[in-house]
Write a structure and sequence with these properties.
two-stranded antiparallel sheet, two-stranded antiparallel ribbon, 62 residues, single chain
Length: 62
Amino acid sequence: MAVPKRRTSKARKNKRRSHWKAKAPALTRCSHCHQPKPPHIVCPNCGYYGGREVIKPKVEET
């Protein structure tokens, strides 16, 4: 069975893990109301997707 001869140093371990970063969520503008929204998702603000209304937006009562 293969066993490491030397301990992996912290610097070497951290260099290997340097690409394990969380990415910021990608946002696009809604083509109808121009609010930021995730791509390929119905707009939560106006309810439009692909140029047509898919759901009715929730109206908040005060």
